Amino acid sequence: MSAPAFAPFGVGGGVVVSAGIAALDPATLTPLFDDFDAQARWVLARLDMVLGEAGAAREDLLRVECFLADRQWFGAWNAHYAEHFGTTPPARTTVVCGLPVDGLLIEVQVIASIT
């Protein structure tokens, strides 16, 4: 499998839409970490970086869409989400599904506003 070519985000009409954010090595398309907690922390840190690159911030998030490889990670995801976003989290959807790379446990995409 070759590395896909895509932008990390798109901006239009005052809205930022991210591509999928996952803890993958872009050269090898292998997970950077084997465990869920490390992948979740990396994804949330990268989310903040993508927002910054797009001219937005965590406070501008309208929605977070999360994809988990297994429902066993739902409780841990809730804990990471609460720690990262505190008392005013954005809207969120979490879906349990097959992810495109073996060993990938979590992927998120976001929608944010910019002014």
Automatic annotation (TrEMBL):
UniProt xrefs under SUPFAM superfamilies: YjgF-like
Domain of life: Bacteria
InterPro entries found in the cross-reference section: RutC-like_sf, YjgF/YER057c/UK114
GO MF annotations in UniProt: deaminase activity
GO cellular component: cytosol
Name this polypeptide is given: Putative endoribonuclease L-PSP
Organism, scientific name: Mycolicibacterium canariasense
